Amino acid sequence: MPVPTAVAATERIAESNVAVSNIAASEYFQSYSVVGLLAVVGVLFVAVAFGAGRLLRPVVPTPEKLLTYECGVDPVGEGWAHTQVRYYVYAFLYVIFAVDSIFLFPWATVFAAPGYGAATLVEMFIFLGFLSVGLLYAYKKGVLTWT
Question: In sequence order, which ranges of 1-86 are alpha helices (DSSP H)?
């Protein structure tokens, strides 16, 4: 019986590592195949629903059905209407406070970890400074006054 050499042992270890990595890769891609199959089923479900709706709906166009209709009011005049742009400020305020709350929760968990206290505290004050500039802008615009 031949004595195993270091080269033969290394080759056996390499073969076993390749087998293990192939098994791990197949398990990895198998989990993604489930996600892919679910995505395909979802797309097919939507396509079948839209196709059934198109096939089953009645198609009887009349002049009344082709009229522009909004909220029970017959269209009069042009289709051009001025819209107020003041609501962008409310959206701006929402973004300020939503981003603030989204950033504060992960910051609180990292702040508790050892070694990150001072750095995360400085970063949070910089971030809150940017948010306070946005809030100051909204205050100067008069958005925060109750009307």
Answer: 6-56
